[in-house]
TrEMBL record:
GO biological process: DNA recombination; DNA replication initiation; DNA replication, synthesis of primer; double-strand break repair
Pfam families: Helicase_C, PriA_C, Zn_ribbon_PriA
Presence of keyword ATP-binding: yes
Gene name of the record: priA
GO CC annotation terms, alphabetical: primosome complex
Segments forming domain Helicase C-terminal: 70-224
Domain of life: Bacteria
Family matches, as InterPro entries: Helicase_C-like, P-loop_NTPase, PriA, PriA_C, PriA_CRR
The protein's name: Primosomal protein N
Length: 329
């Protein structure tokens, strides 16, 4: 239904509303739509400062970059110059619009856009708790430790987005979020149900949701060991960023060569390559990942990277050494 709800989930929500029970819907994307796409040539509207698609907000009619925060009031295609766009994908703002068309004004939104203060958050929570609304749609904020006695259904709408990230922790993060949000349903007398919408139901993270958490983590550890990921290997991510793309690339390639000359056979490198988000705040970013079982190797190779960078750097070039990185974009 509008590419937001499966028929099964729609029917279940309708059933819960008829019984005057409540529903939580997790959609971990703010705004109205994920992308704006040019009707004429199909180009996705991107931030001028970052290589990232802009999120569209219908309320206010603007697009915003989620990395640098730049707001765009007037849209023009960078390829053909047209200013007519299609919105693509769902954010919480569009989800609320669709849900209100389907179920009436019994829908409320909880995300960092709607929660502008602690007082505003309490007001939203109190309205939902009191039964003024039957459906709350929101980002992972709704997975926090809220206790709503009448919530008997949790729907997860877009978990595939999290699982598709280039991050070895994606399965773990998805599992934790799913368990956390599932715990909001049926916390009191009434039994709860959880619906997860996915195009990849065969993935281990879904197959293991009904098992105990120990089984999931044993499977996850086995996968990480097979692919030399932490905790079996330590990781370091080196990022070189510069306002000039060619300078950043050359310096990173030189540092990578020096590290390859110094590392042992048990140490592995991935890259150098453009970072998944190649440009942030007008700085081009090249990445090199080091995997090693030895802490001492991290120190030695980190020193090699820093020493060579000090010799090679130009202009406002920057080096970042991230040990055991949590962010891979």
């Amino acid at each position: 239904i509008d590419n937001l709800l499966s028929v099964k989930l729609y029917d279940k929500i309708f059933e819960k509303i008829k019984q005057n029970e409540q529903v939580l819907l997790l959609l971990n994307k703010k705004g109205y739509s994920k992308h704006l796409i040019c009707k004429k040539c199909g180009t996705t509207l991107q931030c001028l400062n970052c290589s990232i698609a802009l999120t569209y907000y219908k309320k206010g009619d603007y697009a915003k970059c989620s990395y640098c925060g730049e707001i765009y009031k007037f849209f023009k295609c960078s390829e053909c110059g047209e200013n007519d766009f299609l919105d693509f994908g769902h954010g919480t703002e569009k989800a609320v619009e669709i849900l209100r068309e389907l179920f009436g004004d019994t829908v409320i939104k909880l995300d960092t856009d709607s929660v502008t203060s602690h007082k505003k958050m309490q007001s939203i929570l109190n309205d939902f708790y009191s039964g003024k609304y039957n459906i709350m749609v929101g980002t992972q904020l709704i997975a926090k430790g809220f206790n709503f006695p009448e919530v008997t259904l949790v729907g997860v709408l877009n978990i595939d987005n999290l699982l598709s990230l280039p991050d070895f922790r994606a399965n773990e993060r998805a599992y934790q979020l799913l368990m956390q949000v599932a715990g909001r349903a049926g916390r009191f007398i009434k039994k709860g149900e959880v619906f997860i919408q996915t195009y990849n139901p065969e993935m281990p993270v879904f197959q293991l949701l009904n098992s105990d958490s120990e089984k999931f983590y044993m499977e996850e550890l086995s996968r990480r060991k097979e692919h030399d990921y932490p905790p079996f290997m330590r990781m370091v991510r080196i990022i070189i960023s510069d306002t000039k793309e060619d300078r950043a690339k050359k310096v990173m390639e030189t540092i990578s060569e020096k590290i390859d000359e110094a590392k042992s056979s048990e140490t592995k490198t991935l890259g150098p390559s453009p970072a998944p988000i190649f440009k942030i705040k007008n700085r081009y970013r090249y990445s090199l990942i080091i995997k090693t079982p030895n802490v001492s190797t991290i120190q030695v190779l980190g020193r090699i990277a820093r020493e060579n960078f000090e010799v090679l750097k130009k202009g406002n070039m920057q080096l970042k050494l991230d040990v055991d990185p949590y962010f891979f974009m």
